[in-house]
Amino acid sequence: MEVQINCLQLNQLNTIHDKEIINLSLINKITKVEMYNCDVIDNIEMKDGVVVYVIQQGKESEWFFSTRKGKFEVSEELGYKRTILVSIDYHRRVNDIEEIYQEVKEIGNILKYKGYKGDIQVMTDETGIGKRELLFEGKSKINGKLWVEETWKEEGEGKYSRKLIFEGERSLVQSEGISINKKIDIVESIKEVPYFKGIVYGIFNEVGENIKDITIIGGGVHILASGIKHWCKNTHVFSVEIDEVVNEAGIKCFNTGEEIERCVCDGIEYIDKIKTDYIIIDVDCKVRNENDIAAPHPKFIEESMIEKMKLKIKDVNGGIIYNIVARNDEQRKNLINKIKLHFNKVYLWENDEDVNVILFCFISNSNRFNSFNNTIRDFYNSITQIK
Known about the structure:
By secondary structure, the protein is of the alpha/beta class. It is about 25% helix and about 30% strand. It has helices at about 5-10, 65, 70-80, 100-110, 185-190, 195-205, 225-230, 245-255, 265-275, 305-310, 330-340, 375-380; strands spanning about 5, 20-30, 35-40, 45-55, 80-90, 120-125, 130-140, 145-150, 160-165, 175-180, 185, 215, 235-240, 260-265, 280, 295, 320-325, 345-350, 355-360, 385. α5 packs across α7 (about 225-230). This is Spermine/spermidine synthase.
């Protein structure tokens, strides 16, 4: 395997760098195409040895493989001084570890620390390395290179996870749907993403069969919009996405057949023009480290913007729904306190399975979520009135 590696990084790897993570790409010298992405994790307290762990395709964004803390937990679990976490590049079609075993073994030999003469251990998930198919690839002015991939899920034959991923943020899944026999299943897709389920069930409890206008800012590939339309048949759902390439990926790879209106434009400019019953803010922002507030975008929590959005709610019983992503507890608490000052009734949805929390913010003083619907009973266990 002829690969191109950053020489400075390779020199660094000659010695053990305790409690450090060094990331590098292995690029084919001839084609100049990336073959693997590697995280090298050293732990001097572990036994002498080098282990190469090949991450199952589709699991690269899971907590254990996408966060610093998670990677160290994997390293400690495996128990060697040097752990090399290997991600297979999304362009490659690999269905079995045997197809790449010798290459992976060679990665271990190339990246081992100086003086180590033992065997290189190769490990994978007990269910194998999975399968991946590239369905869409594009480049946008806003988010750069992006793609849609489909990877095998463990739960059943014919069931796949379909994900939108940005090259600059590979550790994050931008949008996800579940496909069965190559078609997006909207019910399974909403259930797969806990915070989507929280929003959809909350809207369903509020709206039921009534005719309401619902506007989503940060619509992405429009899975959330399709979910709301599926559960609330009489709603008019407007899904606003600023990135035309993301919108294209949604139409080509995540179309469920639900009747929703898609708009490619700036969300703030769109809000200026509308009157609606509910506004859902699902807009993230680029963060430098995992403790920063990833959602909502700061523009949507400015006092003037919140007050402007309130004026756009045409029904006194309507409201604004925020998706919040903040791993730091204090930051999340402060953000919630800031938003709830502007509303009379506020409810917090949170779930142990999801870092996202949802704020249901209402303008009127009427109590909400009192009526019980047996089909969404788990929603009521996750919702708390905080104002």
